[in-house]
Design goal:
InterPro entries: DUF2267, DUF2267_sf. This protein is mainly α.
Amino acid sequence: MAELKFFDKVAARANVPPETARSLTEATLRTLTERISGGEAADLADHVAAELRPLLIKGTEDPEAFGHDEFLRRVAERADVAPDVAEAGVRAVLQTLHRVVGHAEFEEALAQLPADLRALAQPVPRTP
């Protein structure tokens, strides 16, 4: 049941239907797993619902080196969504993941990302 709450939160944050939230979550977690070390991915996996854990399992310890644009391209392609939807989805997934795993664990994992990717985890200020 916890994974359903995760998808619901992503759907609300990204303003997308639940099915799209599920695709965006899976695509974002798979892409994040490629970008961080196997140890950090496993640490994150320890804190998420059982259904999401396989998305954070990595065959190697070494992270791939790619930046913001490639991260969003991979998510958009995997989730079969437009680039702007992918960006909103990545933000929503990372913000939801942050709340689920806790601040210290989340910051430790994201420390491996370049600043522009880490910035996706920050809430977007609302304009009045």
